[in-house]
Design a protein that fits this description.
single chain; Rossmann fold; six-stranded parallel beta sheet; 51% helix; 14% strand
Length: 220
Amino acid sequence: MRIVIAEDDALLREGLALLLRAEGLDVAATADGPGPFLEAVDFHKPDVAIVDVRMPPTHTDEGIVAAVEARRRHPDLAVLVLSAYVEQAFATDLLAGGAAKLGYLLKERVGRVEEFLGALHRVADGGTAIDPEVVGQLLTRSRPDSGLDRLSARERDVLALMAEGLGNTAIAERLFVTEGAVHKHIRSIFAKLDLAPTDRADRRVIAVLRYLEDIQRRAG
């Protein structure tokens, strides 16, 4: 796995590089700003980019803008965004382009090495890794009538595995069904949740958020 890191905090940037190299991963380049980051992505063509949300010169949304641009230039690039705290608008902007190969984690998760590495590998493998705190904020956009009661038991199983960040092939393997069956279940889920193909946000993300909201509501 080849990785490019974009982080303006030198201590965290080098710490991440050391951690990943110690795990046998190839850190091709590190950058302290959006310009050098995009140049590094274009040159090294990494599998994954780890990007801080706030970078110079204004320390507002440069990281998100750079991440979106990197994905535009290299659609197969997996991106793991790090943020010091939940920034709902930025997360929404990033997710609007689709959830595949995408992660959004709070920086405090880096200290939990196994959790962080698990998220990194999941994103690199085509899945999704969204911080529970970020999910909690995004859930405020969900409608009161989630439509989840319309789902069959099997459809809920599929949705639960989608929430873990699994792709269709992995879901099929986990449930011992064909990938075609998974596609059929997901189409049914979207229909029962009233998620049309024209929705601006990724339907898979919205479905997962509604599922997580329902779990949180039942637990509460």
